[in-house]
Amino acid sequence: MILPFEVKLAAGASLVENTLRDLLDARPLEGELYRPERLLRAMRHGVLNGGKRLRPFLILETAALFDASDDVAALRVAAALECVHCYSLVHDDLPAMDDDDLRRGQPTVHRAFDEAAAILAGDSLLTYAFDIVSAPETPLPAEARLALVNRLARASGIGGMAGGQALDLAAEGSRLSEEEILRLQAMKTGALIRYACEAGGVIGGAQPADIERLGEFGAAIGLAFQLADDLLDLTSSSETMGKATGKDAAAGKATLAGLHGVDWTRRQLNGLVAQAEDILEPFGERAETLRQTARFVADRQK
């Protein structure tokens, strides 16, 4: 039986959610002295608050191409990536960054707790992600764990997500070229999505050419994700999105949707879906769920 895409996505989110709950247990791991209860609650608030879990889903589905989707390793790496993504949201919401009060329909961590707790929760989620991937409990050869850690560090750091956020903050009120916007978005949003697609290949023991192909797919849908997000910021409501909308224009942030308009953005999204489908062609029918993911990313309404 072929399940509707939304059912598959929800099932993957549930698996990852359960893994995250286990990982964010109050019991200290070997080598830890103690897990402060309030800090742990702030971390859970930032992670266990719903969400589509798209990035972890991409790990599970790209690993599935190589028969590794139900593997403990795939779930643990997927959970680790979600920790990095959620840390970035916790920090981005802070008054010094985007100054948001609402995330996924709930108060942001600094509103539910305080700014110091939000900073420490983000710090802890980021470092915990590397713990999860590198730990012996992630049943992969040491070489594969090292590759996953290295790729994650580069995708999330100065040359990836954090660097992209720095460019985004610096660009407020500036007129960026299309090339500059593309670079910013490829770093801030695209880097972790590309990592998710490559990581599934690493977990599944794929050949380097296949991992590179999956990275190209991730780059295409990463741009589509950002374009769709920018479009929703222009056209959707805060009630639908579960967070504030219209903030890019208010802050003077340059986006491709703002630069070229709604119709152009929708045409670009269609083109990126076609590009993503072409990239997946060598994987045949095994990649059908990934094709559905590309269409979901481009067509999403929240």
TrEMBL record:
Any one GO biological process? terpenoid biosynthetic process
Keyword Magnesium carried by entry: yes
Q: Which cofactor does it need?
A: Mg(2+)
What is the annotated signal peptide range for this record? none
Look up the record and report any one GO term of the cellular component aspect: cytoplasm
Instruction: Report keywords, A-Z.
Output: Isoprene biosynthesis, Magnesium, Metal-binding, Transferase
Query: Do you know which InterPro entries this protein is assigned to?
Result: Isoprenoid_synthase_dom_sf, Polyprenyl_synt, Polyprenyl_synt_CS, Prenyl_diphosphate_synthase
Which GO molecular function terms does the record list? metal ion binding; prenyltransferase activity
One Pfam family, please name it.
polyprenyl_synt
Q: Give the protein family.
A: Belongs to the FPP/GGPP synthase family.
Which NCBIfam families does the protein's record reference? FPPsyn
- Stated name of the protein: Probable farnesyl diphosphate synthase
